[in-house]
Write a structure and sequence with these properties.
With 292 residues, chain A is α/β, with parallel strands linked by helices. Chain A is built from ten helices and 14 strands. In chain A, a hairpin with a 3-residue loop joins strand 8 and strand 9. Chain B has three domains: 156 residues, 2-Layer Sandwich (D-amino Acid Aminotransferase, Chain A, domain 1), CATH 3.30.470.20; 81 residues, 2-Layer Sandwich (Dna Ligase, domain 1), CATH 3.30.1490.20; 148 residues, Succinyl-CoA synthetase domains (Rossmann fold, 3-Layer(aba) Sandwich), CATH 3.40.50. In chain B, helix 2 packs antiparallel against helix 3 and helix 11 runs parallel beside helix 12. Classes of the chains: A alpha/beta (292), B alpha+beta (391). The interface between A and B is large, with 64 and 70 residues. Chain B: This is Acetate--CoA ligase family protein. Chain B: It holds the Pfam family ATP-grasp_2.
Chain lengths: 292, 391
C-alpha cells in the first residue's frame, strides 16, 4: 500500500518547464509515475514533455485531477509556489528546492495550518514508493518494492540504505526525505505514525543527524506509542565539530538541541534499535525482522 | 552569516534601538580620538571578532580616560582572541569598538530566535543578563523566559506585558523596554535575521533601555533580497579554503586531520567522518558536493585538498543519483590530478548511478587509487594508509 503516494497518485509539477523540472519530470514518467500537468505562469495552454501546461495550480488541478505536486522552482519563488498548492487543495506537496529563506517558511507553515495538505520539504529529495510512484530527485536504480519504510533528513544516506536493503532482498515500502531545513513540513514523528498504520511496512529506518529537535520529537512519539514494528535509527554527526563559530550553539542548547550521541540515546531509550554506522543499517533491519 | 557587535548595533539603531554612543577604530590613534569625541566619564573598549564569549576571554576592557582607551586598544589590536566560541587558534582582532560606558541598574538578556517546531519567531529573555548568562541558563533553564510571536512577527501586547513582568522589568522602565523589543523584532524581520541577541540589555538608573552588546545572525539563504549585505557576507568567510569551496558549490569545513574526504551529500559526509573517527583516523575536512556542482567545481575542491601538505590520502565516497553521478566525481579527480604534482593515493568507493563508469575512468586515467566496495572497507583502508601502514 505504501504511504503518501501510490499508483493512484496524479502528479503536477510546478516549475516543470525549467531545466531541472524538465529533466526530473521526464525521469519520473519513465519510472512510471503518472504525471498529468505542469504549472508555469505565463505558459498556460502550451505543452511540455507531452504534458499540458497551466498558469495556475488551481486550473491544473480542476482540469486534470492532480492530487500531488512536485515543486521545482527557484528559492525566491518557492514559498509562493507551496502556498499556491496548499490553497488549491493539493493533498501531497513535495518541495525539493534548496535554500528557501526561513522567514518564507514561516508564511508557508501558517498557510499549512488547518489545511488538508501534507508538505514534504523543502530541501528534500522527495518521496518514492518503489514500483508505484516517484515524486522527487532521488536515484531509483537500486530501489525495489518491499517491506522497509525509510524516513530521512539526508538524501545521500537514503540512497545508501535503499541500495543496502535491496541487496538483502528486503526492498522498501516508501522512502521519505523530510529535508534538511530547520523549518519544514512533515517531520519524523508524523512520518513514523504513517508507517505504523501501513500494512506493507514491516520495519522503519530513521536517519537523523546533528542539529534541530526532530530526533527528540521522534523519541517522544515512540516512547508514548505502542509502535509494533522495529524502528532502526542512525544518527550521524557524532564526531562533527560543535557548531561554535556561529556563536549561538549555547542558545540552541537552551532551546533543546542535543548532540548526535544524545539524540541516539534518546531514541534508544524510546525503544529504537541504534546502529553505529551506515553499513550496519540493513543488517540490523534484517536481524530485527527475523527476530520478530 | 554572523554580524559582529558594531554592525549589529548599527542595524538595530536604524530601527530605533538605543545603543551607547561609540564607534569603530582600527588603530590606537583612532581609538583615542573616538574616546575624546565621546566626552564620557568611562569607556568600554571591545574587540570585534566573528564570535561571542569575548567578555569572559578579556576581549572587553573598561577604561577611565581616552589615553587608557589607547592603551587598551594597543593591547587588543593585532592580538589573537580565543573565546569559548572560537577555535583553539582564536581570531585576530582587526577592529575594536570604543563606546561610552553605561550606568547599570538592571542587566537583562534578550534574544529573537525562530522556533522551528512551532514555525514562529520567539523571544527569549532573562532577568539575569551578562557574560555568565549562557552557563547559568544551561545549569538552570528556569531563569529563561519565552514569548512566542505570531508567524509574521506580530506581538500580542498583553502577552508582552506578562513577559516583561516575568523579567522583573521595573514599572518605570516598561515603556522603554517595550519599545526596544518592538524595534528589535522589526529589525530582525526586515533583515531576515535568524538570531538577534542583546546581552546585556541594560536598564539605566534613569529607566532607559540600552543595547550594550548585540550580535545577529542573518539567513544566508535570504541574501538574494539583501544586496546591501554582500560585502559583509564575503568578509564573514575568513578561511580561504571555505570561501573557494563555497564559490564552487561545495560545502566544506576544514578540520585538523590527514585524510582528505570527497563526499556528495551532507548526511553521507557526516556518516563518513563518523566512521573515520570510529576507526581511529582523523578527517582533514568535511565535504558535501552540492547536486548542482560540475566536475570542474568538484576539481577545485580536490585541488584544495591536494594543496594541503598534511594530507596523506584521499577518501572518495560517492553515492551517485539525481544529478551528481559518480563519473562526474571521477572526472573531477582526473582533472585535479592532471594539474598537480602530488600523487596522493586515493581510496575510491562509488555506488549508485554510473559507479562502473567512474571506476573505469579512475583506471583508464591511471590515477593512483584502489577501489573499495563498502564504506567501511574504504574507511579502513584510508585510515591504514594515513597512519603509514598502507603498503
Amino acid at each position: 500500500m505504501a504511504i503518501l503516494i501510490d499508483s493512484d497518485t496524479r502528479v503536477l509539477v510546478q516549475g516543470m518547464t525549467g531545466r531541472a523540472g524538465t529533466f526530473y519530470t521526464d525521469l519520473a514518467m519513465r519510472y512510471g509515475t503518472e504525471c498529468v500537468a505542469g504549472v508555469r505562469p505565463g505558459k498556460g495552454g502550451s505543452t511540455h514533455v507531452g504534458l499540458p501546461v497551466f498558469n495556475t495550480v488551481a486550473e491544473a488541478r480542476s482540469d486534470t485531477g492532480a492530487n500531488a505536486s512536485l515543486i521545482m522552482v527557484p528559492p525566491h519563488r518557492a514559498a509562493d509556489a507551496m502556498i499556491e498548492a496548499i490553497e488549491a487543495g493539493i493533498g501531497v506537496i513535495v518541495c525539493v528546492t534548496e535554500r528557501v529563506p526561513v522567514m518564507d517558511m514561516l508564511r508557508v507553515k501558517a498557510a499549512l495550518d488547518g489545511s488538508e495538505s501534507v508538505l514534504v520539504g523543502p530541501n528534500s529529495q522527495g518521496v518514492l514508493s518503489p514500483g508505484l510512484c516517484k515524486i522527487g530527485v532521488m536515484a531509483t536504480r537500486d530501489a525495489a518494492p518491499g517491506a522497509v519504510g525509510i524516513v530521512s533528513r539526508s538524501a545521500s544516506l537514503t540512497s545508501e540504505v535503499v541500495a543496502q536493503t535491496s541487496a538483502l532482498g528486503l526492498g522498501q515500502s516508501t522512502t521519505v526525505g523530510i529535508g534538511g531545513d530547520p523549518v519544514h513540513g512533515l517531520g519524523f514523528a508524523q512520518t513514523l505514525e504513517l508507517f505504523r498504520t501501513d500494512d506493507d511496512t514491516r520495519a522503519v529506518v530513521m536517519i537523523g543527524e546533528i542539529g534541530g529537535t526532530e530526533e527528540e520529537e521522534a523519541a517522544a512519539y515512540l516512547s508514548k506509542t505502542d509502535y509494533g514494528k522495529p524502528v532502526i535509527a542512525l544518527v550521524v554527526g557524532r564526531h562533527a565539530p560543535a557548531e561554535r563559530r556561529m556563536g549561538h550553539a549555547g542558545t540552541l542548547a537552551m532551546m533543546g538541541a542535543r548532540s548526535a550521541a544524545q539524540k541516539a540515546q534518546g531514541l534508544a531509550d524510546a525503544g529504537a534499535i541504534i546502529t553505529e554506522d551506515a553499513d550496519a543499517v540493513a543488517p540490523a533491519v534484517q536481524k530485527a525482522l527475523r527476530g520478530g | 552569516m554572523y554580524i559582529p557587535e558594531y554592525h549589529a548595533k548599527e542595524i538595530l539603531a536604524q530601527y530605533g534601538v538605543t545603543i551607547p554612543d561609540g564607534g569603530v577604530a582600527r588603530t590606537v590613534a583612532e581609538a583615542e580620538d573616538r574616546a575624546r569625541a565621546l566626552k564620557a566619564e568611562r569607556f568600554a573598549v571591545k574587540a570585534q571578532i566573528l564570535a561571542g564569549g569575548r567578555g569572559a576571554a578579556g576581549g572587553v576592557v573598561m577604561a577611565p580616560t581616552p589615553s587608557a582607551v589607547g592603551e587598551a586598544a594597543g593591547r587588543l589590536l593585532g592580538s589573537r582572541l580565543v573565546t569559548a566560541q572560537t577555535d583553539a587558534e582564536g581570531e585576530v582582532v582587526e577592529r575594536i569598538y570604543v563606546e561610552a560606558a553605561i550606568e547599570t541598574a538592571h542587566s537583562l538578556y534578550l534574544a529573537f530566535v525562530i522556533d522551528p517546531t512551532g514555525a514562529r519567531p520567539m523571544l527569549l529573555g532573562s532577568a539575569r543578563g551578562g557574560v555568565e548568562f549562557e552557563a547559568e541558563a544551561q545549569a538552570d533553564p528556569s531563569i529563561l523566559e519565552t514569548l512566542h510571536l505570531a508567524h509574521d512577527g506580530a506581538i500580542d501586547e498583553a502577552a508582552l506585558g506578562g513577559f516583561l513582568e516575568r523579567l522583573g522589568v521595573p514599572e518605570a522602565a516598561r515603556a522603554a523596554v517595550h519599545a526596544l523589543i518592538a524595534a528589535t523584532v522589526r529589525a530582525a524581520l526586515r533583515n531576515d535575521a535568524l538570531f538577534v541577541e542583546i546581552n546585556p540589555l541594560v536598564i539605566t538608573p534613569a529607566h532607559d533601555a540600552v543595547a550594550v552588546d548585540a550580535k545577529m545572525i542573518l539567513d544566508d539563504n535570504a541574501l538574494f533580497r539583501h544586496p546591501e549585505f554582500e560585502t559583509t557576507a564575503r568578509e564573514a568567510v575568513r578561511d580561504d579554503y571555505e570561501r573557494i569551496a563555497r564559490e564552487n558549490d561545495l560545502n566544506f569545513v576544514r578540520l585538523e586531520g590527514n585524510i582528505g574526504v570527497v563526499v556528495n551529500g551532507a548526511g553521507l559526509g557526516l556518516a563518513t567522518n563518523d566512521m573515520i573517527a570510529d576507526a581511529g583516523g582523523r578527517p582533514a575536512n568535511f565535504m558535501d558536493i552540492r547536486t548542482t556542482a560540475t566536475s570542474f567545481q568538484i576539481a577545485r575542491g580536490v585541488e584544495l585538498l591536494l594543496s594541503d601538505p598534511g594530507i596523506k590520502v584521499l577518501l572518495v565516497n560517492v553515492h551517485g543519483g539525481g544529478m551528481t553521478v559518480c563519473d562526474t566525481v571521477a572526472e573531477a579527480l582526473n582533472f585535479a590530478y592532471s594539474r598537480s604534482d602530488r600523487r596522493v593515493p586515493v581510496v575510491f568507493r562509488a555506488a549508485g548511478q554510473n559507479a562502473d563508469w567512474a571506476r573505469s575512468i579512475m583506471k583508464d586515467r591511471r590515477l593512483p587509487h584502489e577501489n573499495a566496495t563498502s564504506m567501511r572497507a574504504a574507511v579502513t583502508r584510508a585510515v591504514a594508509i594515513a597512519s603509514g601502514k598502507g603498503a
